[in-house]
Design brief:
By secondary structure, the chain is α/β, with parallel strands linked by helices. It has 2 domains: 196 residues, von Willebrand factor, type A domain (Rossmann fold); 38 residues, no CATH class. It is built from 8 helices and 10 strands. The strands form 3 sheets. The chain has a 6-stranded mixed β-sheet, with helices on both faces. Helix 1 packs across helix 3, helix 1 crosses helix 4 and helix 5 runs parallel beside helix 6. It is elongated.
Amino acid sequence: MPTLDPKELIKKVRRIQIQTRHTVNDLFAGQYHSTFKGRGMEFEEVREYMPGDDIRTIDWNVTARSGRPYIKKFTEERELTVMLLVDVSASNLFGTQSQLKRDLATEIAAVLAFSAIRNNDRIGLILFSDQIEKVIPAQKGTQHVLRIIRELLTFEPTGKKSSLIPALDYLNHICPRRVTTFLLSDFYFDDTPESMLKTTARRHDLISVQLGDRCETALPAAGLITWQDAETGACSLIDTSSPHVRNALLLQQTERTKTLETLHRRNGIDLIQLYTDEPYEKAFRTFFANRAHRR
């Protein structure tokens, strides 16, 4: 990615903050809060039993010592830890519309991060390619979110290829407690490890966000073009004027999408599919509505 000078960087971070404010305030604020309610109930205090209290909450140890019935009082443990796993491999530096897939990932990450801190949640970041590239531990606060955005805008990964295994394995090791995890990637992996995804989804609340560009599915009839694999560097000469070639690509990408959807459905993992030239609000509304329906 091109290096930004400090003034350019500040402007770009500020622009993303302004662009995402409307979405955070109007769409995500209430729905995010109701969707992610916290890890459970947290013990607050012991108090004397009162008529109407649930007898299942009686603390028998305190009751036995005092000779009077006492109950345990709990409050909702609201605070969450949210981790963003963002794929920064070379295939995400592609986009034929208004932005690259990585630009879209940055904006989505910003919306999620600002929504998290608005709800007093902690937010962390893991950047990965075929290795762990950068880790920002989960914290709270606007300045922390702005740091995450700066990293997403400027970070230059060491690796070009991509693999889910190191990212998921690292997440499972550093987060022994359940966290809400958004996995942002185009999912151009040689092999999507189902067993690792399944294990991660059991330990954490895992939500996949697939980033795409329509040109990856529907090539324009532009004649002969040189197509380069961003991750391997391999080049191919493609005749885009041929309907056979375009249909073959469409079929290949359609099958790839179906396989990915089946994989997520089979393992009970939410999948949100976004494109560089389309508003993402509708897809998130559907996600929130589906989550509400399942509760």
